[in-house]
Amino acid sequence: MIKHFIAGGLSLLSLAVQAQQTDKQVFEKIFDETMLHGEAYDNLHDLCKNIGHRLAGSPQADMAVRWSYELMQSYDLDSVWLQEVMVPHWVRGAKEYGEVINFGQVNMLALGGSIATPKEGITEQVIEVKDFDELKALGAEKIKGKIVFYNHIFPQNVVNSFDGYGEAGPYRWRGASEASKLGAKAVIIRSVGSAHDDFAHTGSTGFADGVKKVPCAALSAVDADFLHDALIKEPSLKFKMVMNCEMLDSVKSYNVIAQITGTQFPNEIIVVGGHLDSWDVGEGAHDDGSGCTQSLEVLRTLKAINVQPKRTIRCIFYMNEENGNMGGKTYGAYAKGTNKEKHIAALESDAGGFSPRGFNVDTTFLSHPKFDELVELMSFYGAYKFEVGHGGTDIGPLEGAGTKLFGLSPDSQRYMDLHHTENDTFDKVNKRELHMGASVMGMLCWWLSEYGVK
Amino acid sequence: MIKHFIAGGLSLLSLAVQAQQTDKQVFEKIFDETMLHGEAYDNLHDLCKNIGHRLAGSPQADMAVRWSYELMQSYDLDSVWLQEVMVPHWVRGAKEYGEVINFGQVNMLALGGSIATPKEGITEQVIEVKDFDELKALGAEKIKGKIVFYNHIFPQNVVNSFDGYGEAGPYRWRGASEASKLGAKAVIIRSVGSAHDDFAHTGSTGFADGVKKVPCAALSAVDADFLHDALIKEPSLKFKMVMNCEMLDSVKSYNVIAQITGTQFPNEIIVVGGHLDSWDVGEGAHDDGSGCTQSLEVLRTLKAINVQPKRTIRCIFYMNEENGNMGGKTYGAYAKGTNKEKHIAALESDAGGFSPRGFNVDTTFLSHPKFDELVELMSFYGAYKFEVGHGGTDIGPLEGAGTKLFGLSPDSQRYMDLHHTENDTFDKVNKRELHMGASVMGMLCWWLSEYGVK
User: How large is the average pLDDT for residues A296-315?
Assistant: First the structure.
């Protein structure tokens, strides 16, 4: 009996070792195929250089949808389709103008969703604050009718630059709303970014219900310092801002979707995606052309090495992550509503096409019976860090469908330098880094298709 | 007795925990100081833009020595001095010229140490081989009098790009020597680099004893493909190369050295360094202005936060790593010869100023009693990977003095794109990445100064 038991134990062990060796071999095949023949980089070049930036609702976003659909069709996948999404349509209009009166012009970029100034602009005294506490301490009396200038410096003493975004981001997200509550006429912020340069960073801002919308824009870090220094010299100086942005009617757009259908569990879906839209500056290279082209590379690679996943792997290029997330919400509602498919897992790449360092995962995934094996296999490729964390904005609504969410976690140091600026261009993407990321995404998707999420 | 024993155990444990908390606090201080006030990036800018590339023996190398000495003196360290080093003095001369006859001109760069062609150049038939096996199979009969073209493609399916360098590098290091043995008149190689672009990569080549030196140069990857394609169309085509390089007499130069003297064990030395010389193209930004400015930042940071190391931390800007390593050899000989100082450890940064991912270490360091604690502390900063591996070329000769060697191991994906090219310029360096690297170097140096190498 004891003998039998040991033998049984050994044979189970030997099966487990064998399985892991097979997994290792598939991982190697995926890596070799993506690194040697990957097309994500060339596809991203095409998207960035022949279409460029592509804010939801723009003609370029339409072009990008068509481009994506044709590209997916060219890969001979099992299905390719479009999912209709109604998206907001904000336009910047003529380039904004910012000037520190008596000192000079500055690099300024309207925040996404901002309203315009009157045609002649707003020329008003500036009240500088470094944070919300200073704003509140000043109160309505000092703020009313003025331009509030949030000069909150991006904290560099963070290991992950997304933590810096977490600290400085709120001044973009709700700074205008808070200042408007106290009667501010307009708001300018120091760009939420890690580089000290001339590029202003845009991005969404929002107003709490019932709060009057006011024009809001970001200055480059260099020009935020310029304004700060000018205010020291002349505390009552005025700032002139002219902005021409406008929210038009919502328009129809699409999520673009392709899949390899699972051989054993075709109705169990693993989503892999990024967002196709970008801000209306730069080329949306890291944010998030990278994530889209990497996600499609996952399917191309599996197809090229002739690996048939047991579960369906579905690639989604989401529309409108940047200013509304209507693509994510629309797809999430579909997934929740259908009883034909079960979305077991979703992986998003939306933190830049940099060297992969791991994945953000759902808490429950840490107790997956094969979790340690996966971490060991992935560590070889430098993707060792599996931490509980954010999956991605587009896939967020899938949580309501019971889906486990995963986010590619690349090296974060450069992302916040480029994010939402004219500087987020193709030349900032490194081919090896982009393809390394795509390869570990392919490994995770295949592994999930093999073992499920338990 | 049992009670006493437990109490004793607890108090030891509590001391250990306390020590670790103190280490953690020092690490945090180092991180904050380097990330918030670090000067490595600005110093590197100054070196790259106001001096530029600086091959040993060149006027720029002299300028760099003076610049370094003055910079070190400005930091109010305990000692700053120069160590005399005799260095080889190779010069490129007038820009080389390469042409595929009937097809067009190419981007070509002489390999470091190459001899010149005759004034009128060499115009000869090209024999393309992809590796040494093909060369040998052809033999002297087919090679004699011809130009050998090594077209060995950099392998992209490596996780660490230095492994690709290990595979493709030998064609640069000894390709000319092997071809010359078979009577080749000259040698051209496909650049040893990971990017497919127009930049040719230089770097040292060597000839075995008694082998006749022949002119040798590298083509950019794009032009290696161009030549390859031309050879398919016209197998007997000729290639013209004109090179004007020359080895002059050795000249006097210097290692530039500064230190903070240890409070308890001033004669136990921890070296931290990089190399000041670079190839004679680009700006030597990642290779290795980064390593120098990071090493000096270690001292600046410790001084700024007023942490007094128990052992001496000595920063060395080595001269002549690229084509002779005379700085490393000279310092190594000093360390071996002195009985006044014991060099317990040396850390080099010469793999680029990219995001740190860990350290290469000596095998024996893995059994340091506090090794696990160190790894845990460092992991927080993303430097988790402590692997047995190469410390650095400059510090290599210290092994003879019984020194434990450490090498900063940054993310490797971009290094081989830039290495030894016109493209290794300051704009390729990211401030956060450079300073992250400097901060973990500072942590390791301080920790070694506190606990020794055991």
Answer: 98
Q: Give how far B433 is from chain A: nearest CA, Å.
A: 6
Q: Which residues contact B29 (CB under 8 A, 6 or more apart)?
A: B305, B307
Tell if the CB–CB gap between B32 and A357 is shorter than 8 Å. no
Q: Which CATH class name applies to B94-244?
A: alpha beta
Tell me what percent of the residues of chain A surpass a pLDDT of 70: 96
Kindly state whether B343 is in contact with chain A, defined as any CB-CB distance less than 8 angstroms: no
Fold classified for A26-89+249-451: Aminopeptidase (3.40.630)
Confidence of residue B1 (pLDDT cuts 50, 70, 90): very low
- For residues A101 and A123, what is the distance between their CA atoms, to the nearest angstrom? 9
pLDDT tens-place string over residues A100-134: 999 999 999 999 999 999 999 999 999 999 999 99
- 8 Å CB contact of A31 and B430: no
According to CATH, where is 3.40.630.10 located in chain B?
26-90+249-451
- Give one DSSP letter per residue of B81-128, joined into a string: EEEEEEEEEEE--SPPEEEETTTEEE-EEEPBTPPPPPTT-EEEEEEE
Confidence of residue A400 (pLDDT cuts 50, 70, 90): confident
The fold of the A96-247 domain, in CATH, is Glucose Oxidase; domain 1 (3.50.30)
What ipTM goes with this model?
0.94
Question: In this complex, do B159 and A381 lie within 8 Å of one another by their Cβ atoms?
Answer: yes
Q: Is the separation of the CB atoms in A381 and A31 below 8 Å?
A: yes
pLDDT digits (tens, 9 = 90+) for B196-235: 999 999 999 999 999 999 999 999 999 999 999 999 999 9
Topology of B26-90+249-451 in CATH?
A: Aminopeptidase (3.40.630)
Residues of chain B within CATH 3.50.30.30 domain(s) are: 94-244
Closest CA in chain A for residue B32: A157
